[in-house]
Specification:
Helix content is 44%, strand content 16%. With 153 residues, it is α+β, with helices and mostly antiparallel strands. The N terminus is likely disordered.
């Protein structure tokens, strides 16, 4: 069973069950509630930024495949528990980033600067693995069938 907590979505204005709140609070009583505010803060029309300075996005480091693949996995899991238009928009953004970073041979670049300059010729095996994990998880969800054709490419 996946652990979890209660979540207040400031974008939609309601509290929702995301994971098993009681089990999580029994194990870690002081753990803050599940909240995607920082994810929204770090995400723009390109994808999720690699780093922040405290709670402020740090544009100096740009974007990376790993973080967008992890963000995709997170929002697909959250969408499974509580579907929302905002989460579908994030799924679309992260998927678009992964698609943009894919090379003709099927491999992926990893790093993109904030001004949209590719910073490597080919990503690492671990970034490739996380990307396949995120895409595979998205494919297994029937709720997100509109994204399946692109993922299957």
């Amino acid at each position: 069973m996946i652990l979890g907590s209660r979540h207040f979505n400031r974008h939609e204005g309601y509290a929702s069950e995301i994971w098993d709140e009681k089990l999580l609070h029994d194990i870690i009583p002081d753990l803050p509630a599940f909240d995607l505010t920082h994810i929204y803060r770090l995400t723009n029309q390109v994808g999720i930024l690699q780093h922040a300075k405290y709670s402020t996005p740090n544009y100096h480091h740009g974007y990376c495949l790993d973080d967008n693949a992890r963000a995709l996995l997170l929002v697909v899991m959250a969408h499974e528990k509580k579907p929302s238009v905002h989460l579908e928009q994030l799924i679309s953004t992260y998927l678009a980033y992964l698609y943009y970073m894919q090379l003709g041979n099927g491999k992926f670049r990893n790093f993109l600067s904030f001004d949209h300059v590719f910073l490597d010729e080919e990503g690492t095996e671990d970034s490739f693995g996380r990307t396949i994990w995120g895409l595979g998880y998205l494919l297994k969800t029937s709720q997100q069938a509109q994204f399946h054709p692109l993922v299957q490419e």
